[in-house]
Design brief:
Layout: H1 7-17, E1 22-26, H2 32-40, E2 45-48, H3 51-60, E3 66-69, H4 78-81, E4 87-91, H5 94-106, E5 111-117, H6 130-142, E6 148-155, H7 163-181, E7 190-193, H8 199-204, E8 209-212, H9 214-217
Parallel strand pairs: 1-2, 1-8, 2-3, 3-4, 4-5, 5-6, 6-7
Bound molecules: pyridoxal-5'-phosphate (PLP).
Length: about 220
């Protein structure tokens, strides 16, 4: 029944299982039919980058997927995804963090978040820098914001053929993650790093969650 391209699902799941890591299938630009096909195969976690696209797909698939928001989030769109989003990976500014806290509190829920950390060379990639995020973590540890559950960190390595560079960027993120996790915050257990081109390196360096699109669905148009 399933299209041959989804054969990669089982291979990836097998690779992940030896690390105890979780797969988020990145479904941006993919159809609801394709997502349903993966759900039928037992893949429930999906990552979307755009709020409008996520809302549309969510409405078309009442239950099934567990939705992750992995894109660049703007404060004015936070309210729309809070009611149902499982985990927000890309929290990279204080203003977005405060908005998530405010809207979650209004709705009487705790929203799970990851801080996005800027580890790549490219300026275009977003997130806090390493010093900033540590300061923020410490200040939230002292005086927590309501409505938030800090689950961990997310980062994207430089887009390069240089595996040594990718590895050292992931290492830096992992070491920051370990420092924070050792603070005693129980919920802090998720390190989201690795995409189609670099997830094997990420797993090697301690990733607990990989975000894979093209390796699963084929190249994006
Ligand atoms: C698109 C995207 C991915 C998946 O990329 P692939 O190379 O298709 O696996 C992962 N993470 C983020 C943040 C993305 O925007």
């Amino acid at each position: 029944m399933s299209a041959p391209k989804f054969l990669a699902l089982h291979q990836i799941q097998e690779e992940l299982s030896s690390y105890g890591a979780k797969l988020v299938a990145v479904s941006k630009t993919r159809s609801v039919e394709e997502i349903k096909e993966l759900v039928a195969m037992g893949q429930f976690d999906f990552g979307e980058n755009y709020v409008q696209e996520l809302l549309t797909k969510k409405d078309l698939m009442a239950d099934g997927p567990v939705w992750h928001f992995i894109g660049h989030l703007q404060s004015n769109k936070v309210r729309q995804i809070i009611p149902f989003v499982h985990l927000i990976h890309g929290v990279g500014t204080i203003s977005v963090l405060k908005e998530i806290s405010k809207r979650s509190t209004e709705m009487g829920k705790d929203t799970e978040i990851l801080f996005q950390v800027h580890i790549a060379e490219e300026e275009s990639k977003s997130g806090f820098d390493l010093v900033e995020v540590m300061e923020l973590f410490e200040s939230l540890f002292e005086s927590p914001l309501p409505g938030l559950r800090l689950r961990g960190l997310m980062g994207m390595a430089t887009f390069t053929e240089d595996h040594g560079q990718i590895r050292s960027e992931f290492k830096r993120l992992k070491s920051l993650f370990d420092q924070m996790a050792s603070s005693g915050l129980n919920s802090f257990d998720t390190l989201s790093m690795g995409m189609s081109s670099d997830y094997q390196i990420a797993l090697d360096e301690g990733s607990t969650m990989v975000r894979i699109g093209s390796k699963l669905f084929g190249p994006r148009g």
